[in-house]
Structures are given as C-alpha cells and as structure tokens.
Amino acid sequence: ALCPEHLSDPARSAPARRGRAGPSPQPAAPLAPRPLREAAALRAMGFSQEQARRLLALQPRLGPEHREAAAAQLLLLGLSPEAAAALLERSPALLRLPTERLRERAEELRRLGLDGGRLQRAVSRCPQLFHVPRRRLEAAVRLLRERCLFTAGQLREVLETCPTVLLEEHRTLHHQFQYAYFRMGVRQKAMVQARLFQMPFAELRNRHIFLERRGLYETPHKGQTQTSNPKLKDILQLPEKDFLASLACATPEEYEVFKKLLAREEEEKEEEKEEEDVEALYAEDDDDFDSDESKTARE
C-alpha cells in the first residue's frame, strides 16, 4: 500500500512515471551545411579539396546537381580532375548545359575522329565546342573533307590541333585554305604539319606578302620555283621577332611600315571596287531607260 503523502505529492510520483516510460529520445544529428555536402560529393569524384573549393566558387547560385553532373561528364571524357576544374573555370557556361547535351556532343566529336587523347586535348583547347550547333560542326567537317580535300587522318589532326576551325565562318576558312594552296603553293600535308589554321588569316597574308615583295618567296608554277621558299611551318610558327630576323631579314620597324602600307592598299582597292559597282549599277539603269525609250518610240 502507498503512503498518503505519495498519493498527494505529484513531484514524488513523477520520477516513477518517467522511469516506466523508458529513456528519452536523442535529438537527430544536424545535416552538414550544403557547401560541405557538395564539397564531399566532388571529393568522392577524385577532386582535391582545393579543386572542389574552386568549383564551388563557380556560379554559387547554381544547383549542386548541375555542377556535379558537368564535372562527372568531363571526367568520363578522360580529363583529369585538375584539367576538368580548369576547363570549367575557363568556360563556366558549361555548368548550365544539360547533362544529356554534354554527353551527345562528346559522342558527336568522337564520330568526327576525336577519340581518347585527341578529344581531351580538343575540348581543353576549345570548350566552346560544346556550344556549337551540330549542323554547324557537320558543315565545317564537310568543307574540310570535300572542298579542301583533307584525308580522314589529316582531318583528325586538324581538329585536334586547331579545333577552333569548327567555330570559324566557312567562307573565311575556305578562303584561308585557298590562299595557302593556290597563292603559296602549299599542299594539304604541309598545311597540317604547319598548323595552318592556328594563325589568323590576316597575319598569314602579311608575312607571306612581306617575304614575296622582298624576293624571298615565289608562287610555284607547276610545282616549280626559281627560289627556295621558306617552309610554311617556319612562316607560321616562328615568333614575329624570329620570323623577321631569320626569314625576312628585316627590322620590326620595316615590317610595321609595310603592314600600314598594305592596309592602305586594301582600302584603296575596296574603294575602287565600290566605285565600279556603282558605275555598273548606273549603266544597267541607263540600259533599262534606253530600252523603255525605244519601246515608247516604236509604239
């Protein structure tokens, strides 16, 4: 039997009731802050702590799934974590591309012959390849194969070393090829070896015409020249200082004066062409007017 004081005193009976209810539940462990969870996910992919920190700093408002998916796709291409992080830093817009788009574009580039290390080097040099429409890529490849007549092997090397050809305007690309082929007498194999498309067309033309006017380069006629032309590789790949000293035998001041004079020549040619076009237009109008007058007279 219980004593009356136990029945009347609720404070004394409370411990007994707590004892019968069992241990109180433990509070749930708090979730790690979102940046820590994202960093852990990137670390699990193979990124270092520093690389994960750099990736998290890119477009911080972006959802973690986009960042992780883009990083995963680049790793699947064979890029190292450091190369993938550097590529995303140079082109953070890749983070917003759908995962399926990244995957499809990688497959398209593989079909063009960029596989393995070639694909890694191409996208590292030109991350914009992921943004170019598929039809534009295909049109550039058709131009290089069908109109410039590069072999499949030569095309692969061009795309690996100069992937920006896939971004160029097709008219500009074809014009640069024609200039090297017809004006300079260079064949496709030498173009590939010299990495023709790495140099802007304007600078290629400046260097070639400068050599030509100094009597150091001659356009081959039926494959033959009276002089020994410098190799295209040397013309393109030598720094300007070395090009002038070893090939052109000229000073930087002479080259600068030449480029200004050449630019003036081009402006004058453009003005003459515009005047000829206007004169031709007026001549057509006069012919039409004369025809109308003759018709009226006959009537």
Descriptive report:
The protein has 299 residues and is mainly α. Helix content is 68%, strand content 0%. The protein has helices spanning 4-8, 10-21, 34-45, 49-56, 64-76, 81-90, 99-111, 117-125, 134-147, 152-161, 170-183, 188-194, 201-213, 232-237, 240-248, 252-298. The chain is globular, with a radius of gyration of 35 Å. InterPro entries: MTERF (IPR003690), MTERF_sf (IPR038538). Residues 24-33 have a biased composition (Pro residues). One of its GO terms (molecular function) is nucleic acid binding. Belongs to the mTERF family.
* Shape descriptor: globular
Beta fraction of the residues? under 5%
| Assembly state (oligomeric) | single chain
Task: Tell me the radius of gyration.
Answer: 35 Å
Helical amount: 55-70%
Return the average pLDDT rounded to an integer: 84
| SS-based class | mainly alpha
Tell how many strands the DSSP assignment holds: 0
Q: What is the N-to-C order of secondary-structure elements (H for helix, E for strand)?
A: HHHHHHHHHHHHHHHH
Distance between the termini: 140 Å
Largest sheet: none
**Low-confidence spans:** 1-8, 10-19, 28-32
Tally of contiguous helical segments: 16
GO molecular function: nucleic acid binding
Protein name: Mitochondrial transcription termination factor 4
Family: Belongs to the mTERF family.
Biased composition (Acidic residues): 267-291
SSE topology:
Elements: H1 4-8, H2 10-21, H3 34-45, H4 49-56, H5 64-76, H6 81-90, H7 99-111, H8 117-125, H9 134-147, H10 152-161, H11 170-183, H12 188-194, H13 201-213, H14 232-237, H15 240-248, H16 252-298
Helix pairs in contact: 3-4, 3-5, 4-6, 8-10
